[in-house]
Amino acid sequence: MKAQNPGQFPPDCVYTYSAATSNTSLHFHIKKYHLEEFLAEAECQGWVVQIDSVRVMFSVGYNYATLHKVLSHPNVSIHLLPPAPPPRPNDELPAFSSPCPPPLGAGLPPFSISTLHCYLVRFIV
Questions:
Q1: What is the pLDDT of residue 6?
Q2: How many domains does the chain fold into?
Q3: Domain-embedded: residue 122
Q4: pLDDT at 3
Q5: Is the Cβ–Cβ distance between 67 and 77 less than 8 Å?
Q6: At what angle do helices 24-33 and 35-45 cross, to 10 degrees?
């Protein structure tokens, strides 16, 4: 990809990936160099976004459309954004903003040693 369009790649952006490469460096790389492209693809594919700074922006009212619009302005980064605009009726929520899972204790029986043993056996087996 870089050989086809070398002008689009900053000279300080040199990454070599192998089977042993962790995801941590990918998060930083995507956030720094490909955030808008990643967000467009995440919206299209329905991916759950795991980048913390993006999740924070979604939680304060941004969605894919409003985030893309504000990030397209010069000198704006994911860490320095204006307040989120009010949502429009047809705005879709990002994948992680789906209803919260039930609390951890929801639907569990009252605690007893025998119940604990049953759950442990079910978990192990």
A1: 73
A2: 1
A3: no
A4: 72
A5: no
A6: 110
- Please report whether residue 47 resides in a domain: yes
Per-residue pLDDT of the chain (125 residues; tens, 9 = 90+): 567 777 777 677 666 666 776 777 777 888 888 889 989 888 888 888 888 888 888 888 888 888 888 988 888 888 888 888 887 777 766 755 445 555 666 677 778 888 888 888 888 87
Bridge partners, residue 98, by sequence: none
Task: List all residues 6 or more positions away from 92 whose beta carbon is below 8 Å from its beta carbon.
Answer: 43, 63, 64
Residue 1 domain flag: no
Task: Domain of residue 60: give its range.
Answer: 6-98
Around 24, how many Cα atoms within 13 Å sit in the side-chain half-sphere?
2
Q: Note the maximum CA span of the chain.
A: 66
Determine, yes or no, domain membership for 42.
Answer: yes
What is the CB neighbour count within 10 angstroms for residue 112?
A: 9
Task: List phi, psi (to 5°) of 92.
Answer: -95, 145
Q: What is the pTM of this model?
A: 0.58
Query: In 10 A of CB 51, how many CB atoms?
Result: 17
Q: Rounded to an integer, what distance in angstroms lies between the CA atom of residue 3 and that of residue 64? A: 30
